[in-house]
Every structure is written in structure tokens, then in C-alpha cells.
Task: structure prediction
Amino acid sequence: MDKLNCALTAVKNLRSNVRQCFEHLADGTDGEGVEESRNKFVHDFQEKFGAINSQLREVEQLINGLQVPPTAYSLGNTAYLAQETSQDRQALYPQLVNSYKWIDKVHDHSFLAFNNLNQNTLRRSYNYCSQKRPRLPFSSFNNDPDHIDKLLSEINTPPHTSYRVFRPFGSNAVAIVTISNVLKAAIVFKGVLIEWVTVKGYDEPLEQDDLWAESRYEVFRKVQEHAHSAMLHFFSPTLPDLAVKSYVTWLNSHIKLFLEPCKRCSKYIANGLPPTWRDLRTLEPFHEECRNC
Amino acid sequence: MGVTVLQPYPMPENKSGAHIIDYLSKRLLSLGATHAGQFLVDCETFISSPQPHNGTPGRAVHVLHNSEYPASTFSIMDSGTGKQVSLVADSIFDLLMLKMTNTFTSKKQTKIESRGARFEYGDFVIKLGSVTMMEHFKGILIEIEYKSCMILAYCWEMIREMLQGFLNINVGKDFPSYFAPQTIMTPMGQQQMHAKHNDMYEPTDTVKQYLEQFTNYRKHVSMHGGLGGQQQQPVHMSPSPVMGAAGGLGMIRP
Result:
């Protein structure tokens, strides 16, 4: 084993010397036709060349001194690599390429996500807001209970929508909105801020003690997803009343959930779902797939 | 449970029922629907014995089962004057009918059923049913249900687009004949037009639609003399004048 080590070190030295020699050659002389530097260059080269020669001999000697090992070396798991010589049958290469690609992708995505999260304007923590405007009074989450009742009654509701407000969590209100015979939504308030929205079908139960279960219908699960993103969009701790009003107006646009075709593709069904997305400003219906293209 | 529409599939002359079912299943599967079990809707009709002393004609009671509601038995009594009384009972109702053989006799030869595969696509449930009467193939009846909507007027366009999509036939813009406006008597005794497509949908509506279609298939048989000779007394199976006039293929307009 020692001999093998020596031989490997010698090979390594040889390689590094050869590399140095070539680097020296590539650098060339510094002056233009200065006799001294030329001589020095040639001398250096000869020295290095001599060193290479002697090392080459040394390597040869060492290699000659090597013996065939009596028993196979124990190489751990890597020994199995030699068992199957055909590369195709090992199928290692494609796997390696795949994992490399995955790692690359994970890296890319985490980088993008990191950037996005850093500049996220949808952060909903109050501390975050208070850092920016330390002296602003937070009427938005510390409110008298009557205010939300008044706010909801002020909202210009279409006749087909009904509100039922109750307070299962102390002073914070929960409003159950029934939009025509189409859907029911439970809006959970914290003060005047909207904390959570659950959307369910008209025939599904939506009661005080079961506000969090998802709808059994795919379409309402999708609408709930969109309702959450709209909730973040309309979130505004400085103008909470306006935020609630615009959100409820947006939610009311779902009255024609099954009635209106998508504005872009003019079809009713895409992937088994009606147009579930309502534009945040124009309230026009779109399929989830159509809204971004 | 949601709005359900029944659509008879027009049978081409030179193709077998199994062939069309196969073709439609393939279209559904390639659309992205998943196969979700089997279904069966059957209908048996009982006739009351006529009572000659007061001249009441024989009444028909249709007893239907729907595999979607396995614990229930649906029965629809048809007085023959276009008025229907429907009743939803537990499945033990079948045994009750057997006890009443003195008054109601079963017309075995008109036992009709629709069975086949059930598919799910998003919130849609699609059933491809082959209608058989006494083991004879009668036609294909497509049932499509949109589970998340309760009112036909809201989602008819969606259902229509879906039907046209996978059936590859033209489906008329009007509501299906079952949902056509009907004249009803208000509790005050006035006649009023009632638009059924704005009502909340109920499981009995599905069953009534099946009865309407089954009645059409049976009529077709008696018109062509298939079992006509065995009918002994006049049976009023047409549920209402509107439905009778609209006919079986009322939904497909040229």
C-alpha cells in the first residue's frame, strides 16, 4: 500500500512539474531581446526539463516496483461499480443527470421565492405595519363590536344577498353571506380586517361550529382559493372599511358563477370547472387558465 | 346532489348500443373524466283493478329505484288526468306493494331499467345508460348531473356545452321538456304558469325525468306492436299533457 501511495504521489508531482514547465514556456521572456533574460529563460527551462526527466524516471522505477496485490482491496460500496461493466445497464447516468437537473431547479426556485418573499407587500402582520407608521392608531383590529354591524348594514347589498352576523369568538364577528341560490361564504373578521373566508355550495351546511371545513365540490374549493387571494389583494390596514366594502362587492360578483362564460375563451367549462376567477377591478369572469394569458 | 338532465341519445341505424356506449366512454375518458362505478335505475308499474261500480279507471303506480339513493324507493301515482302524486319512502315500500296484490297488480312485462357506467369529471357526474325492457335493448339514455348547482336556469348553458362536447350532437338552447313551464293550480284555486327551471332541484325530479323517458320508450313499443297484444286495460302512463306532447326527443330540435 505504501508503494502505491508513493507511486501516486510521484505521478502527481510529475504532473505538477510538467504544468509548471508549460506555464513557464507560455509566459515567455519579459524583455525584448535582452540577452540576459533570454539566457535566464533558457536556463530555467532546462532546469525544469531536467526535473521532469528525473521525476519520470522515478515514476517508472516506482511502477516497476509495484506488485500485483495478493487480495482485492476493500473499496466499500464503490466495489459494486465494477460488477456491472456495461454502462447502459447500470442506468446511473440518467439518474445522475436527473438529480442534477432537480437540484438546479430547486436552486432556481428557492432563489426566486426568496426574492419574492423579501419584497412581499402582502405581509399581514400588524407589527410589520407598525414599523412603518409607528404612531398610527390601529382602529382596524381594535374596534367596537357595533362598528362591523354598522359597516355590513351600510354596504349596498343587492337584494339576492343576505348577511347573518354572529360572534362566536368574543367581540370578533363572523358573517355568513348567502349569495342568491349559488353559494354561501363565511367571512371571519378580526376587528374590521378579514381573517379567513370559507366558501361552500348552497346545499352544504355552513354553521358556526364548522367554519373551517372545505366544500365537497371542486368548484367552490377553487372559488375559496381565489377568495383568499382577493382577500390579500383588498387587504388594507389603513382603510379597513373600504377594504371590506370592496371585498364584499367582489364576492357578490359570484352570483353569476354558473351563468356567465369566460370573457377570454367564451366557453363555460374548462377542466370541468366554470369560470371561477372574477377580475379584481372589472369583476369580469375568467377561467383560472385564461386569466393570465 | 345537484341539477340532473336526461338526454336520450339518437340511435344511428347501423350501430349497436354497445358500440355507441363504448364510443362515448372513450370520448369521456379522453376528456379527462374518471370511471366511477356503475349505476341502475329501474321502474316497475302497478295497475289498480278498475272499479266498475263507480266508473273509476285503473290507476297506475310507478315504483322506481335509483342506485344514487340506495335507501329510498320512489313511487309516483298517476291518476290518468295528468296529475301526479309522488312519494319517497324507505326501501321497505317494495314489500308493502307486494302485500297489496289485491288492489295493485304488477305489470311485469313493462319492467324497464337503465343501467351502465358512471363517470365523474370535475363536479359533473355522467351516466351512460342502456335502457332495457324485458331484456330487450331499447336505447341509450345519458344522465348528466352538475353536483354543485341547485337550479337548472343557472347552469343549463354549462350542462348544454358539456353535453354537446362529448356527445357530438346538437342540443337545443331551450330547457329540456321536463322543465318546460307548466300550468299549475295555486292553493287559491287559480291557474298559473310555473317555470320549473327556477325551482330548487330535488331527487324526485331526476326520478320523474326517468319516468318520462321510460314512458316514451314503452309507448314506442306499444306503437310498434311489440307487447301491445298483452295489454289488457287502458293505462294512463303519460304524466302530463305537456310532457306527452313534447315527446321523447323533444330536446333535440332540428
